[in-house]
Structure of Quinohemoprotein alcohol dehydrogenase ADH IIB:
Amino acid sequence: MNNIYRPAIRCASLVCASIFLIACSKAPSGSDMAAADVGVVKEWSKHGGTDAEQRFSPLKQITPSNIENLGLAWAFDLGVSRGIESTPLVVDGVIYVTATWNKVSALDAKTGELRWQYDPKVDRSKAADLCCDAVNRGVAYSDGKIITGTIDGRLLALDADTGKVLWDVVTVDQSKPYTITGAPRIVNGKAIIGNGGAEYGVRGYFSAYDINTGEMVWRFYTVPGNPADGFESPAMAKAAETWKGEWWKYGGGGTAWDSMAYDAELDLLYIGVGNGSPWNQNIRSPGGGDNLYLSSIVAVRPDTGEYVWHYQTTPGETWDYTATQHMILAELDIAGETRKVIMQAPKNGFFYVIDRETGELLSAKNYVPVNWATHIDQETGRPVEIPEARWGGKAPHLQLPGPLGGHNWHPMSFSPDTGLVYIPAMETPFVYADDKNFSFNDSGWNTGADGAMGSLPTGMAQFKAIKAAIKGSLLAWDPVKQQPAWEIPHKGTWNGGILSTAGGLVFQGNADAKLVAYRADNGERLWDFFAQTGIVAPPISYEIDGEQYIAVASGWGGTFALLYGGLLPADGDVGVGRLMVFKLGAKGALPELPTKVLARPEPPESTADAETIAKGKQIYDNRCVVCHGDHVISSGLVPDLRWSPLLIAEEAIQTVVLGGALTSQGMPSFSEVLNEDDIKSLRAYIISAAHEGLEEKLDIGK
């Protein structure tokens, strides 16, 4: 495979981006691979199917020869539609799924009949502390208990039969902007959970709780705290040697907000660790340093939390290059030797194959175009960086990947039959530049990067260039040869997680509002189903009474959908969120979408001066953009402020933004960080944006 590295692009506008496609090659033989911890999964009782997190089902009733007969068996309306990212679990004929605001539903897996629902009644003002939507990625199951986390930092155990609360513990300091969006994992009678919040200035950690009592057993911090307070472990003392300055005042980051895997034979728990806080290392750790254990895979003993080894994918990370992306355990035949490996395609654009016993790097190649490093040095395991990419204190740098990564949270899958890893890959460039006005605020957005540099351009020529540069694909990757086997381009980015099956199929939902089945060996598109809304969650498969089922939760949302709100799924609707279940011979259909009439009242005239509007834009970009969208263009998941009746009078918008009138609906009060003059400027900018008409250009998904 040709190296996809391209020299650093010297310009401060995204229009300069050059994107290059990955070439295809012949698929590898399945005889080169062996599965780790697969078994006969007739249920789907663990987040990734098994502890190995392969997301491969050995069920093979559904095949390329009969996939055309796959139909909708039943669908359940989740009652919400915003950012449904859940992996359902199936245990003893019951399917468990989560939705927005951490609501849990238990249904008969064969008929869809509701058994019970549980609403943890989370504090919706915590939406202000969510970088990436009010999402949840699922529950864990063990010994008759459903374990789930909440965005306000709690971990709960529910009776799997009734939904009754068995225990409810707080896992974070709720006075700080911690959140939980990931699914817990169960290992040796313990529920393991991390947290999020690095963009807001917290110190990351993950913890183990006794599944019977909810008592904390151990905690592993992922970055060191203030040395004056002492270190919690030798691992933290060692990590502190790689930091400079007074990093603890900024939190440090390193939140373990998603991926885990477990090897029972080695008794090792693997945790993916996130980005630094702030992103900008020049602020966080002036003078550099590797900043352990940011952007690392960390292996610990699950009974004690004792550190065993780590591998850092991005030393001294400064780009939001998390290593929290999905990790997969497998056994690969490498150079004639069977190796126990852990595989990951983190945000930084390189695919890693690592010995999971020792943490030794076996190989790494870029799976998407990158221009921040030329390659990974095989001897040191470190990336060979391009000097211009270290943007802190330097000129802006147009980079691939950007903070959305070459692969985000959407799970990939490994098939031991084909020997391929199936990746929901992305190409999303971004301009990194210093935030000249940075001032740390422990309740606000703290990246140290100028967010305005990542805004979509308003000029049509520039916009078309960006539209061409932002891409998504289903990439089948050979982890032994470290090259693509095949690749299917999507119409847009931010597509769903992956399921592969022994029936020779790969299933993926997409931003184009379809669930699609492909041939696992060559990527041929065989079947699709219109879901009426974008799918970001991964499918699963299970068997009941000799019939194989495919299940997936639909509901558009997440970081990309909120931030670039106008880039909607083609032909879809953001108002429907469902659990959909399919089987051969079923003939079910979804109800027709209702006809919607968009209410777009004429916004007030723009009378403010340029200085006031500019101040309002700065406030908006710092406080509002991550939910209400770039250029104030909403996805529809949250209100589109350009058409809000609150714009009519200054007093009206102040009752919401300062007075907290809509806190119960997820719109928090900003009275602690904004004042009435700020709201006047904010209103002026929103009114100005309402007259721009940029929404006519926002059709990347179409």
Observations:
- The chain has two domains: 30-584, 610-697.
